[in-house]
Amino acid sequence: MSSTPAPLLPETRRALVHRLATGQVAGRAPSVVAAVVRDGRPVWQGGWGTVDGQVPDGDIQYRIGSITKTFLAVLVLRLRDEGRLALTDPLGEHLPGTVAGEATIGALLAHTAGLIAEAPGPWWERTPGALRPDLADVLGNDPQLHPAGHRHHYSNPGYALLGALVQRVRGQAWGDVLRREVLEPLAMTRTTLLPVAPHGTGWAVHPWADVLLAEPAVDTGLMAPAGQLWSTTTDLARFAAFLIDGDDRVLHPDTVAQMRNPTSPPEATDWHIGYGLGMQLLRRDGRLLAGHTGSMPGFVATVWVSPDDALGAVVMANATAGLSAGTLAADLLQTVAEREPRIPAPWRPLPSIDPQLLDLAGPWYRGPAPYVLRPQADGFMELAAMSGGNGTRLRPTGDGDWEGLNGYFAGERLRVHRDADGTVSHLDLGTFVFTRQPYDPATPVPGGVDPTGWQADSTLDQGGVGDDGGRPGVDG
Q1: Which partner for 32 in 24, 318, 360, 371 could form a disulfide, CB atoms 3.0-4.6 Å apart?
Q2: Signal sequence: where (predicted)?
């Protein structure tokens, strides 16, 4: 991450202002604010329209709706990383007494628990949380609509349960936990559960006339983890940077990357969208965006990030409908990515290296297929096919083994086998044997190696030679 990212070109800044302005006019929103983050820092902020007669800036609060869910997911994953719970744990193991106790924590995060989309009773987003004083009031008697794990079904009550889970495990209100564990470390001083001036008023815009109707801004009580937060573009720009690079004070970068992995199956007609752990995913023009959209009566908001571009975009507006914050944020991000492609940081040697890692570095072969194993600056390694594609990142387990973190080998163990003299003989990764030479006969290659060895006679019988059975490479 660069400490001083280069400023945007004047032509790029004008294109961003133009897209923001046309979005506000076409969407008929009283006001809209936006920001773009590059290399971990904001490089542009803008506003169009007015709040209390002034063009809004990065300090004006708007309600961010379901972006709140991403914050809540961070709190849950912190508990997971601390060993306080597992994503495979049933909710009831940590939060007993609900009718959804068999739902796993991971399924709730990914909206695959099959629970109802909305809380029973009057529309929860426009009515006080006092109408739902107990968790039973946000679930009803039979909240299970679909078999668990069969499909993605967005559930606001599911995140109410996760908020209650955080509160029970931490022994403190989830909003206080959020402030202490996430907002304060990231210096997000203007992100709050209830509005703090200056803030926008939420408006509904009449569909056929240019007139406004004020929307209620209620405290939703137990449903707050699903969409309560208010924030600013300055704060959400910091959050976008965190969603790209992580922050060891909050979540390790690899855990943040896990949040961006697809966890829920998309609808058959919507393969361009998906869901991870508290994060929405969008495939757009060959670019994978991650983040979350949000809406509450009177407000829409979106945070999108593209880690490959080191870019993030934030949009907030105070209108119930009409302006697509998700589309506008994606357009702003794409504007910068296409006009000013990312310039890579200078190559630098590793600051230090464990000599044993040098024994592992270099080319390896799974059968005849070449791979390369490279030590990383943080003490991890990456195994990648030389033919290209995404590699598998490997972390040390502390007992001499390594664990895959992504791709086909996610969760699989890499074991280093050595000869009697300590020389590395071969690697075993999920039963695949990697050797220093293709099908090295001195190593225990599964099925053995033909004793006649490699042959050059092109007239040899070719019968029975087939493909590799569709086995995936490292990138799956």
Answers
A1: 24
A2: none
